[in-house]
Amino acid sequence: MPAAREVPVQLTVNGAARAATVPARTLLVHFLRDHLGLTGTHVGCDTTQCGACTVALDGVAVKSCTVLAAQADGHEVTTIEGLAGAPGASQPGASLPGASPPGAGADGAGGALHPVQAAFRDEHALQCGYCTPGMVMAVRQLLEDHPDPTEEQVRHALAGNICRCTGYQNIVAAALRAAGAEPAGSRPADGAPGTTEREG
Q: What is the number of other CB atoms lying within 10 angstroms of the CB of residue 155?
């Protein structure tokens, strides 16, 4: 059986130039995880169903399990690790899954959380955290396209991302908080059980 053809791939990841020679069939998600060590981008389905592998390719959210690494050659990729410390990331605090620790290198300028990451933390919009990086990247794209979204627009934008834990309500609340449209009553009193609810 002939050996798999290999191709050189050069791209910019989280602001840093990266290069590797990989099998031509290598998916972008595996290039990021296996060749660059950026494991914040998760593999959930490999069939573009769950959204856990969402990254930004030239600023546009894509599911990296359906993009070949070779297709990203010459382009710019931003992963969840690249959001912390990015412009607008001014809120320090506890990290979320995929957020880089303080002092991280060029692949993740950790320390301050991106506003979307901070909103996920503040709204408790995660449980196991496996879907969180993809959700954060999807919300980042939503707010690029619609800086002041309605709840309906948030839910539509997240239709391609699956969460098996939270019931989505706190994720929606986090998106609205990040947009500056914090839903009424979204912060329960200390010790209050349950998820957030949007009035109206």
A: 14
Phi–psi pair at 116, nearest 5 degrees? -70, -40
Q: What are phi and psi of 6, to 5 degrees?
A: -110, 150
Judged by phi (left if over 0) then psi (alpha if -120 to 50, else beta), residue 191 lies in: left
For 115-153, write each residue's pLDDT tens digit.
999 999 999 999 999 999 999 999 999 999 999 999 999
- Read off the amino acid at residue 1: M
How are strands ordered across the β-sheet holding 60-63? 16-23, 6-13, 76-78, 54-57, 60-63
Measured between alpha carbons, how far is 113 from 90 in angstroms, rounded to an integer?
Answer: 6
Query: Average pLDDT for residues 112-117, to the nearest whole number?
Result: 93
- Rounded to two decimals, what is the model's pTM? 0.79
Say whether pLDDT at 154 is over 80.
yes
